[in-house]
Structures are given as C-alpha cells and as structure tokens.
Amino acid sequence: MLSCIAVSAQADIKIGMITTLSGGGSTLGIDVRDGFELALKQAGANDVELLIEDDARKPDVAKKIADKFVQKDKVDILTGIIWSNLAMAVVPAATRKGTLYISTNAGPSALAGKACHENYFNVAWQNDNLHEAMGSHANRAGYKKSFILAPNYPAGTDALKGYKRMYKGELAGELLTKLGQDDYAAEIAQIRASDADSIFFFLPGGMGIAFMKQYAQSGVNVPVMGPAFSFSQDILPAIGDAALGVVNSSQWGKDLEGDVNAKFVQGFTETYGRLPSLYASQGYDAANLILSAMAKADVSNKDAFRAALKEADFASVRGDFKFGNNNHPVQDIYVRKVVKEDGQITNRTVGIAIKDHQDAYASKCRMN
Amino acid sequence: MTAALIFEQILNGLQSGLALFLMAAGLTLVFGVMGLINLAHGSLYMVGAFCCAWVTQQTGSFWLGLGGGVSGAAAAGALIEMLVIRRLYDRDHLDQVLATFALILIFSEGTRMVFGSMPLYLNIPAALSGSLTLPGVEAYPVYRLFILGAALAVAVLLYILIAKTRLGMRIRAGESDREMIAALGVDIKTLYTIVFALGAAIAGLSGALVGALRSVQVGMGEPVLILAFVTIVIGGIGSIKGALIGSVLIGLVDTLGRIFLPVILKFFMENASANSVGAALSSMLIYLLMAGILAVKPKGLFNAAN
Predict the structure, then answer these.
(1) In this complex, how many residue pairs, one in chain A and one in chain B, have their CB atoms less than 8 Å apart?
(2) Which of B5, B142, B213 sits opposite A189 (nearest CB)?
(3) Interface confidence (ipTM) of the complex
(4) pTM score, whole prediction
C-alpha cells in the first residue's frame, strides 16, 4: 500500500531542459523556459517533473548536463537547446541511446536529412525555413539585387543558403561576418557602395541590435529584411525606433488568430510582465506537444509514445501544425512588420510568405 | 572598388581602432603601474554602459548619462580596488587572473539581478545622429567622428597627465620602483586607488560611448577585453603610446582584412569559397599580426620597461 502511494506520488514523466540562461543569448533560453512552464501551469500538469539547467551557450557544458540528466536523473525526454552547435553535441548521441529529444529551437540541416532519427522531434522549424520564406517574399516584393550577410557559423551559412534557395534575383553582395561582431561600419560602407535594392541579414541577439542602430545612422535607405531572429520581441526594445518598418519572417506572431494563441499571449504577458517572443511560443508548443502525447500513451511504452508525438494532436499557437516524415514541422510561415503599438515596439503580421512549407532535407530522411 | 570606398574603409578602421584604444589605455595603465592583470576590466566597461543607459533613461539626457557612466565605473573601480585588488599586488599573475575572473562572474550576475537579462535601450543623442559629407566620403555617421575625437582627446589628456603633472610623475616613479617611492613618503595606497579608478573611468567612458552605437547587454565586455589584451601585447605592456599605435594597427588590419581579403581571394578561387576562406582568414588576421610582431619584437612595439 505504502509503495503504491509512493509510486503514484511520483511524476509520470521526467523532462530534462538544457537551455541558455546566462551570458550572451540568454534571453532566448529564458523565453523558451518561461513559455514551457506557462503551458504546464495552464494545463495544471502536476504529473510532470521538469528539471532545468543552464548550458551557458557552451557545447561541452550542454553535453555534461545531458549525460547527467540521462544517466543520473533518468529523464524520459530532453528538450530546450537553443543553438545548433550545442544541439549537434547532444542530440545524436542521446537519441541513439533511446532518449527522446524535442527541439524547441535549433534545427540544424544535418538532423533533418540523412541523420534524422525516430527519437528526435523538432517543434520549431528547420534552420533554413524562415530564411527561405524571406527569399520567397523578396521575389514577391520585386527585389532584384539583394545584399546578404550573416555570421560565419553553421546556422549563418544555412541562413544564406536558405535565402538563396528561394530568391530568384541577383546578389549585389554577400558577406560572412564574425560571430559576435558588434561593429558593422565596414559592411555598411560596402552596402552603400553596391547597387543593392534590398538587404537580407541574419544577425541574432546583440549583433542585430548593433547592426540596426548603426544602419539607421549611416544614411543608407535600402529596405531591410531578415528572419524573425533579427527582430524578435526580446531585442526590439533595445533597437528602438530604428527597427520600425522592417519586414521579417516567422512561423508565429502574437496577433495570429485563434483562442490558443490569445490564451498564450495573455497568460505570458500577465505572468511575466513582458510580451512573448517566438522563442516563448516554441517552448509553449513543445510542452503542449508532450502533454498531448501523454494523454494518449504511457512514456514507458516508447513506440506508442513516439507514435502519439508524431500525430502532433495538440492545439498549436500558430494554428495548423503537423510533422513531416523527418519529424520536422510542415507549417505556414508569415511575414511580419515592425510597428509601434501603444508605445511598445513589436511585430504585426501582414501576410503569408509560404504556405504548408516543408524543409529541403526531408526527402533525404529515410523515415516515413 | 573605388578609391573613395577604400578611403572610407581606412577611416572606419581608424575609428574602430581608436574606440579600442579607450579600452586598452586603462588596461595597460593598470598593468604598467601596478603589475596587475585585470580581467575584470571588461566588467567596468559594462558597468559604464549600464550606468549610462540607466541615467539616460531616468533623466532623458545622454550627456548626464555619459557622466553617470564614467563616474559609475570609476566608483566601481575604486571600490573593487579597496576590497579585492589591493590584496593581489604582491601575488603572482595566476592568483590575479583567478580573482579578477571571479569579479567578472560577480559583476555579470549582479548586473543581471539589477537590470534583468534583456538588452538595455541606449541610443545616440539627437545632436550627434545622422551623417556628414566628408571629402571623398559620401556620408559618414557624425557619432563615429565624435568617438574618434573623444578617443584622441583621451590620448592627449593621458599624455599631459603622465608627462606633465605631479600625479603623472608619481605614477611614473611607481612604475619603475614602488618601494623607493613609498620610502620617499608618497602614499602609495592612495596612488594605486587613484590610478585604478582612472583606468576604470576610461573603461566606463568607452562602454558608454560605444554602447550607444552597439548594444548594452550583460557579457558585452568580454569580447572587447580579449581585443584589448591583444592590443597591449602588440603595443608593449604598460605603454600608453604602444596601446595607441597597437589599437590603430588592429583596427586597420581587422577592418581592411575582413572587407578586402574576400575580394582579393576572388582572383584565385571561386566566389563561394573566396567568401568563406576570406571570412575565416580575416578573423585570424589580428592574431597573425600579433604573432608576427612578437616574433620580431618579443616585448611589443614600445616596451615601457626600456
């Protein structure tokens, strides 16, 4: 009897969250964590045990935490990693050994193609997706000469590749900058000297803040666009008015219609006193995906639980959502514009960039 | 690739070099006088930027914010000198590295506790925004010219202070023989606190000025700190003149390298690989420069000890 109570008092499922909570880029991890916790709280899920640790954006730290979660804490699911290089250090080894991994942000191309795995689900996007959407938007906007730049690291080169995959015009120039660079005077001078009719850039976090502030001072007036990462809610207030009017692509917007999204945005704003970013929406969806699978199958039955995850039978904040053969999303990607609403700088959804978009690597994945 | 563009990029390199000088000057001053390796110098840069952003938000005036940034960093500098740094002068460099690294962690977490982890808003004052037409350059941001001027002014003031004033004389004396100057009745403790606070104030000025142009966030000091160390190693540790020459060299090599290296490589290879090889090579360029200079002059360009 006693042991019975002890068992039922234990959580049904144990989730280990590895995310970036300190140092550069911590706003992303904090938003993912807060969105995830909000979903658990709103669902009243007290059968979930959530362990959270900070990877400080270091691959070796992330790897150590993952080993501890799996071997010592015996978690059923790992989640939360923000950066692709950290995901590559953790995910392949963990999924091969039988732990489920739900990605809340990073979607490196390697894990979507040949190296896809039945234990790996990405509830956010494949890395190239938002950039592809911007490339397709550029065609529609009639841009013929884009100047493109991104930092020189895997997600940066993936970004430029994604943009070029869809974009049909010529390039006025292409630059790979240093990761963490915060002075763009030389790059902006090159843009001015080129005959570009548009700029596409992927510079997440502080890099994007610095670029936009310096661009606004430079007297160059070429229209700017980028993925949502360059204009997410966590950095917009720091850029200020310099970001107004810029268009960007996102799988989510806080003004998308639907009760789930309204409940998420209202709950997040009330609980944390700030507007949610797309990262928060991804954390929220990840938690709801796990909860939906728990309602259908017990996590100890791996096959049934995986099948339940793959059905993606949960109400996503972005509306329609389903997994493709490689366990990556098939979803609409929207165009947003940076505006000022009630004195706050934020994004407004202005249209759809691509409908039912699937990543370019899915055909290389042997799952179905 | 016109001559005007090359000229503009040289100006950009000069400007980013001089912005780096503001950071390196304090670091080399403290090392030269006290023999102290201060890893927390980047934290004082961050303190300056955060104080500036906060005061600017409260008062609406960037100039008051700038004053707040400089005095906030100087106060933080004086405080850590009296509490922590003072105990490190007689220890070896490894202890100093350990203790000042701990200070980095304390400053970063402390700043996060006070201001949160979101980047802060700090923008260029209206009077200095926009751009000017210079001879040969179509439009150059006014604020960058302002940073250039401010850095040159700091260089001149530091020269006057060290070469022409009584305080400067004591600083130079402390550099060459600290026991003798103490025996002559100079209050060496106060002198060290003043020098450390002065170095901190310049770091704070740099953080406030550059923060308005880049971004104000926790951890902003560490990348600049690494560059500042490269600068003072190239220039000769302890030499202000060396820091000036070293930082301008780094600014020029870094800026011109990252723009023109891919262009040059395109003559030898196809576009895509020229871009990625160029980007990879240019990020190594300043370290190659450092290695090259150290091979010829192992103590840097201007060694203060000679």
Answers:
(1) 124
(2) B5
(3) 0.87
(4) 0.86
